[in-house]
Amino acid sequence: MKRFLPVLLLVLLVPSIGWSQGNFLAVNSLNGKVEIRPGSSKVFESLTNAVRTVQVGDEIHTGPGSSVILTLPDNSYMKVNENTDLVIRDFWSGGSLRSVVNVLLGRVRFYVETIGGRPNPYRVQTPTALIAVRGTTFEVDVDDSSYTEVWCLEGHVTVENLDLPDREVILGPGLHTGVASGQIPLPPIAKNEDLSPNRTLKVVKKGPKADEKSMDARTLEKLVHDNDRANRPTDRYKQPASGTDSNVGRAKASMTYPE
């Protein structure tokens, strides 16, 4: 038993070793025109092959036909595609979920390393969405209106609206969702199907004097939360300390990394 102890300790310490290597992301595979605005500056400058790392607060911008790969200390990495803006977050500060980047505009694909049988607990932010990593490969795209689409390629990711944290969806491989300002994430669908970001909900007041132009706040609240656990008394997961399950697309009470 003792001879296995050093190996076990090494596995448990791998994440800590990675975080202690430095507060930066390594710059790899730089192509085309890529610019950087250091956190202490208001001016963008060219990112060249001589610059090997980026720091917390740095903003990265890729031009047309350009891309760059940024690698985290645990060898997870992200490919920043053309016409993309993102800001490096303080992901090494600890906590159950580590914020990696804030994708302001454009498309980024993430490849997350798995250690000890599960991926590192990273989180990605956009102007409208929070994406928590539960798998290994996913892609995020943000358009000019801050509408965010998320594709899961391997494993699972959870997605919620930044301003509506009481609702989230889980994406399995081959599924994607969209998050618009002020709306909960769209139901997950196959990656080759089109989402409808400009959806509207028509709410009609119920009762003998109801008409199509009236709206009842209680009716609206029930409709918005029609899949909440509180509205499903037979739900076997409706417990005060219940965790998540693997049912893709199900509404969740909170975004937490699964044990």
CATH topology: Jelly Rolls
- What is the ordering of alpha helices and beta strands? HEEEEEEEEEEEEEEEEEEEH
Supply Rg.
21 Å
| Largest pleated sheet | 17 strands, mixed
Helix content: under 10%
Q: Provide the residue-averaged pLDDT.
A: 75
- Summed up, the domain count is 1
What overall form do the CA principal axes indicate?
globular
| CATH class wording | Mainly Beta
Number of E-type strands: 19
Low confidence ranges: 1-21, 200-206, 210-245, 249-254
Structural class: mainly beta
CATH architecture verdict? Sandwich
* Assembly annotation: single chain
Q: How many H/I helices?
A: 2
Tell me what portion of residues adopts beta-strand conformation. 35-45%
End-to-end separation: 26 Å
Give a quick rundown of the structure.
Helices cover 9% and strands 37% of the residues. The chain has 259 residues and is mainly β.
